[in-house]
Amino acid sequence: MDGSTAPALTRRGRGPDNRAAQRGPTWGRDAIDRPRRTPVNEALVSHDGPGHHWLAARGHRGMELGLQRIGALLRRLGDPQSAVPVVAVAGSDGKGSTSAMLASLFQASGLHVAHYASPHLVETRERVAIDGMAVSAEVLDAALLQVAEAARAEPALDPTPFEALTAAALLVFAAATPSLDVAVLEVGLGGRLDAVNASEPVVSV
């Protein structure tokens, strides 16, 4: 050793620890000073329509279980859930395939069937189908706009994205009556308190 100061070593012996510099500035004060933006669920903006954009902007609501809010929203919309008999399908696993099979069986029997499922793969409208065909994005967007107007008229309703989509699907199905014979609705994550159960199903699976 020649007495010169040796470079500081990290625990792994790789020279000066510059990881903090690589990470850039800390977020403490910067995060507080940044303006907060409403979270947008981009997965729900599959159509460039005002109804879809309103739905996507509901991302800040997250999931909140209960039937009181969705019930009040549906009443304001004219109780579309009463327009067609409902079969609700719930469960932890397999409810998607079960609801799809039920809808197919009903249709094969000659009935006209509405089907509400989640989640979608590519487009939001895939969740809302009649006789095996997803409704058009324009039809769903118009229904979402009706839901948005009802929610704005009574701010206390403040629906979650799933509640808004469920209400919109029921509006679409109600508009298709009396040609519809039955609606198969797949329950989301809420079980007994899921928005789908505001429809008062005639059969629950």
Task: Provide a brief overview of the structure.
The protein is of the alpha/beta class. Helix content is 36%, strand content 10%.
Note the quaternary state here. Answer: single chain
The arrangement of helices and strands along the chain is HHHHEHEEEHHEE
Instruction: Please tell me how large the radius of gyration is.
Output: 25 Å
**Overall 3D form:** globular
Strand content: 5-15%
Count of DSSP strands: 6
Query: Helix amount, in percent?
Result: 25-40%
Assign the structural class, choosing from mainly alpha, mainly beta, alpha/beta, alpha+beta, or little secondary structure.
alpha/beta
Total helices: the number is 7
Largest sheet: 6 strands, mixed
Strand order in the sheet with the most strands: 4-3-2-5-1-6
| Average pLDDT for all residues | 79
Low-confidence stretches: 6-38
**Ends distance:** 80 Å
What's the arrangement of secondary structure elements?
Elements: H1 19-23, H2 28-33, H3 50-56, H4 68-76, E1 86-89, H5 95-108, E2 113-116, E3 128-130, E4 133-134, H6 137-153, H7 161-176, E5 182-186, E6 203-204
Helix pairs in contact: 3-6, 6-7
